[in-house]
Hints:
This protein has helices at residues 27-38, 66-76, 119-125, 142-152, 190-204; strands at 2-7, 12-13, 19-20, 42-47, 59-62, 82-85, 92-94, 113-115, 131-137, 157-161, 170-177, 182-189. It is α/β, with parallel strands linked by helices. Cytidine-5'-monophosphate binds next to helix 3 and strand 9.
Amino acid sequence: xxxxxxxxxxxxxxxxxxxxxxxxxxxxGYAIAQAALHLGWEVVLVSGPVELSAPPxxxxxxxxxxxxMKEACERLFPGCDGVIATAAVCDYKPAVRLTGKMKKGGGxxxxxxxxxxxxxxxxxxxxxxxxxxxxxxxxxxxxxxxLQKLRRKNCNWIVLNxxxxxxxxxxxxxLISARGETEENWSGPxxxxxxxxxxWLAVHAPNSNS
Length: 210
Ligand code: C5P
């Protein structure tokens, strides 16, 4: 099995030094990469900026912005059997990136923000025989929102987790299928959830070589 994994946050720049981002540590995605390598899979890891080192043995692609993540993923996905998208991608970016460093003017400022492209939805739309697994971090109406995302992004499965997962070593997740069924509930250290998820995919996800 050859799997594409997205991990970490993206950054969207206001000027050459300031950016908007989020608190994703990348731990879940890196733990999944590690677990997949352990099972003997080929791992293509596309990661935003995090403090973790790439697991030895993976094909590593460093990106910073959402546009870079999208470009790398669309180039690499056709060579893979499936994708696991754990990245906490910025939903908005400044409409313009200023050059240099914006000066203070003494008063409030307004920044126009536009939506970024959805990396996973883009991969879902070109998936053909490949499988697509997304993550959804939901605070309100978690199941309903996660299922809507699964359908909108053409995923085979979505892993629902809660905001407490951000930056934590632990996670508590529900694996939901495209039919809306709960396939599994797992909780514990992210490394354990990663191992269970990859073992589950080894049984249920199609491998284009087999
Ligand atoms: O941010 P959201 O809850 O929509 O994320 C759901 C899934 O979509 C996650 O797997 C995330 O990695 C992916 N995503 C993406 N590109 C975006 C937003 C989310 O790939 N712009």
